[in-house]
Amino acid sequence: MSGLVQRVASGKIVSPENIARQSRLELKQYALLMAVIALSLFGVVMIASASMAYAEKNYGMPLYFASRQLTFLFIGLIAGTVLYQAPLSAWEKYGPYLIIVSLVFLLLVLLIGKEVNGSKRWIDLGVFTVQVSETVKLFIIVYLAGYLVRRGELVQNTIGGFMRPLGLILIASVLLLLEPDFGAVVVIVLTACAMLFIAGVKLKQFMVLLVSLAVTGTLLIVLSPYRARRLASFLDPFDDPFASGFQLTQSLIAIGSGGITGTGLGNSVQKLLYLPEAHTDFLFAVMCEEFGFIGVIVVVALYGFILWKSFNLAKIADQQGNRFAGYLALGIGVWIGLQSFINIGVNMGILPTKGITLPMMSYGGSSAIVFIVSFTVLLRIELETRQFADKVLRGNSGGGAS
Fold it and tell me: Minimal CA–CA distance to 292: which of 240, 254, 322?
């Protein structure tokens, strides 16, 4: 009970018992799990539809990518079931080791990684490849959540405490840029900034960080010819619709063709080898074509619910005094929200093209498995906050409290 944080509302102290009761009411069982399952299964359906022509042409199996995605989801389910048993204290304890492992594997990618389309982001294990950047995103969030608990006052009051975690994130970002994987760097850095801001870092230091990031990002674009070309094609894709602007123009055609209700499942035209990466980075465009605005509303609502659930869990965990769980839920929520927004924004032409997946829907083994593990962590936070609330209420009932 001593771990509960007493709140002041309307001039009255809110008791731990009331906080526990409110937490118990807000922790709806299975809602988060059902949303994740719905996204995953709908993702498999869309992967099957979007990849059928490409898979038939290149592999002689129309459902090649859909069947592999189901395999990845099954592997993720096994990993998630095992990790669900691990208490949050274990994640907090091993967070620093996870970030070290991440840096080691990022180095291995540069040394022995598999190169695809000019990028070296994968380690080939024979049966399938592993994209290390996906695990790095989760491990950095776990490490930073633990660091903010251990060194929270230093982060708020000293430059050294503020800069120390940024040093490790900088090393990881440099290694990712060498692959190159600019999209992963954007997601990691923005997620870390959100966590630091919520942790109470001084506004002056935070503004200096944002300006530094803006300058660095601008230089990375200006000094890199292919990033500059991507930016130019983003600003006016129809200036060169058959070369640099081809992918975005095809995506916009797909989205515009869907209208309100869509053309129907399987009836997309752009997926017929017109739209590149239709089952990975541009799956959202095919979904818009086949399910229209109504399908978009449903999918965005599911992501919105997951985002709200993550932030609500962060609030409840903080009220219970479990700051690690609070920061962890916050970080995962920001990560999922950012990556979803960036992928959808790229498909709709409101953000420059980046190779980044739509969580739980785009094809990709590493992405699917890591996201399942991440949602498992959220479910574990939900379990422990519920158990804490139940313990408080049982203790008060046993003590004769009304």
Answer: 254
User: Which single residue is written with the structure tokens 């079931």?
Assistant: 81
User: At 91, which helix (H) or strand (E)?
Assistant: helix 88-112
Left if phi > 0, otherwise alpha if psi is -120 to 50, otherwise beta: which for 357? beta
Contact 95, 146 (CB under 8 A): yes
- Chain segment 170-221, per-residue pLDDT in tens: 999 999 988 888 889 999 999 999 999 998 888 888 888 888 888 888 887 7
What's the token pair of residue 376? 């498992």
Q: Which residues contact 176 (CB under 8 A, 6 or more apart)?
A: 106, 133, 136, 182, 184, 185, 188
Asked which of 20-24, 73-77, 374-378 is least confident by mean pLDDT, the reply is 20-24
Gap between the Cα atoms of 6 and 14, Å rounded: 6
Contacts of 228 (CB under 8 A, 6+ apart): 221, 222
> Structure pTM?
0.88
Show Cβ contacts of residue 397 under 8 Å, excluding neighbours closer than 6 positions: none
Task: Report the relative pairing of strands 12-14 and 114-116 from DSSP bridges.
Answer: unpaired
Three-state DSSP state, 131: strand
On the question of a cis peptide bond just before residue 225, with omega within 30 degrees of 0, the verdict is no
Token pair, residue 148, equals 């903010």
Q: How far is CA 247 from CA 96, 252, 400, in A?
A: 40, 9, 67
Summarised one tens digit per residue, pLDDT across range 118-171 is 678 888 777 778 888 899 999 999 999 999 999 888 888 888 888 888 888 999
Bridge partners, residue 123, by sequence: 130
- In terms of DSSP bridges, do strands 7-9 and 12-14 run parallel, antiparallel, or are they unpaired? antiparallel
Which bin fits 292, alpha (ψ -120 to 50), beta or left (φ > 0)?
A: left
Does the structure show a pLDDT above 50 at 1?
Answer: no
| 129-131 vs 7-9, strand pairing mode | unpaired
Taking the domains of the chain in order of start, what are their residue ranges? Answer: 90-223
User: With left for phi above 0 and alpha for psi between -120 and 50, is residue 265 left, alpha or beta?
Assistant: beta
Tokens of 67: 């069947």
Tokens describing residue 255: 């989205």
* Adjacent-strand bridge partners of 124: 129
Return d(Cα 262, Cα 250) in angstroms, integer: 16
